[in-house]
Design brief:
Length: 151
């Protein structure tokens, strides 16, 4: 029963987290890129990203804690099997997000939003990076499903 509850919480947190990344990547960035002024782009992005970053931190912590408990229940030796590949991909994706959200985000924003910024170039780079994160996340989801429920 506990395993099932943890799995439900884990999957819901991952769905909300990756869904948010998909929304920012596929909806917000195209809108931002069509916005005319640099200041307007920065304000729009900061408003959305600031709100989502708080939620993403909650989702990532929840996914990490529940994922750790699920892995413990399955046995850590699971990581050494062929079916553990999906878990490794999830761990890489999760670690990437956590490092960005909790360590590198302030550094990135300070660098990107300097006085000498070229808004179009900055937001193009951010959009490409978000696509990378989204694709990594979807690969992790696919790998988890494949190794957990494979052919």
């Amino acid at each position: 029963m506990l395993f099932t509850l943890l799995l439900i919480i884990h999957v819901i947190s991952v769905v909300l987290w990756i869904g948010g990344v998909a929304f920012v990547t596929m909806v917000m960035f195209p809108i931002i890129m069509r916005t005319a002024g640099s200041i307007e782009k920065a304000i729009m992005f900061q408003g959305v990203e600031h709100r989502f970053a708080r939620l993403a931190k909650i989702y990532s912590i929840t996914a990490g804690i529940t994922g750790l408990f699920l892995l413990y229940r399955m046995g850590m030796s699971f990581l050494l099997t062929g079916r553990g590949i999906g878990i490794w991909v999830m761990i890489v994706a999760w670690t990437t997000y956590v490092l960005i959200l909790f360590i590198f985000e302030p550094i990135i924003f300070k660098t990107l939003f300097s006085k000498d910024m070229d808004a179009s170039r900055v937001f193009f780079r951010l959009q490409v990076f978000h696509w990378f994160l989204l694709i990594l996340s979807l690969i992790a989801v696919g790998a988890g499903i494949w190794t957990g429920h494979g052919p």
